[in-house]
Amino acid sequence: MVKWNKEMINFLKYNKDKLSNKEISIKLNVTKKSVSDANFRYGIKKDVSKIKKRMFKEKILVPHNKGKSFLVGKNNPMYGVTHPKKTIEIIRKKNIENGIYNKLSLRMKNNNPSKNGLTKEWKINIGKASKKLWMDEDYRKKMLVILNKIRPSSKDFLFVEGCRKRAKRQWSNETSRTKLIKSLHLKPNKIETKAIKIIKNNGIDLYYVGDGKLWIRKNLDVFNPDFINKKKKIIVEIFGDYWHNLPKAKERDKKRIKVYNEKGYKLLIIWEHELKNESLFTDKLKNLMEHNNGITR
Residue 235 phi/psi, 5° resolution? Predict the structure, then answer.
């Protein structure tokens, strides 16, 4: 049993990140086990990575490949070679027999650091590691190539066109459209709320459906009117002065009017500035409801 005096303990503390247990045992003329026991007893924690780095530099320690180039990338004899299907199946069966997949899944469930959300320390460490990697030019070039393959540029015409077509298809599907509208929690804007109040106060038989309650569709063109009377086949649209005067909006509104007419609806378009004169707005609505005169732009 080794009796540890103050000088020996101080020597341990001073050299905890400099010397290995074996080196300390030689210098203090004690066993390696007694050094590790002393570290545990006096609460001395060693940074093994620093000691190993120093030992590798001084060539006290030799890597497992005995100084040869690491078997990574082109140095690996299996680089660019894929196993045949038969060998893959044999490996998979052996793994199932040995219960490797179950062990891995259990390990990931029990010892997964991101199971209950990553701690601040983990996040900081991940950020530091990724920054270090990104500083390396070769790594950065490789990653940019991979990212461009996964995420094509927004300038790529075919990619943009494909996205637009997929979005149109999804929008034309009723179930996907209703899901999207529910997630958006659509509410009437300022102009529409004003129109709703005027219509209610004057007892006009029109219902607000601008929150996605009703859609009128023809092929891939789908439109959501602001107000509707299904029995009389009447639609009222409230157009904002700025938005609906934009070139793209004008083109879309032409399609809108065409679809409504083809479906047998009479349309009345009310512009934002027209709502300032309530009497004019109510007169237009009453005239439409009584005489069923569709008015466009």
Answer: -125, 140
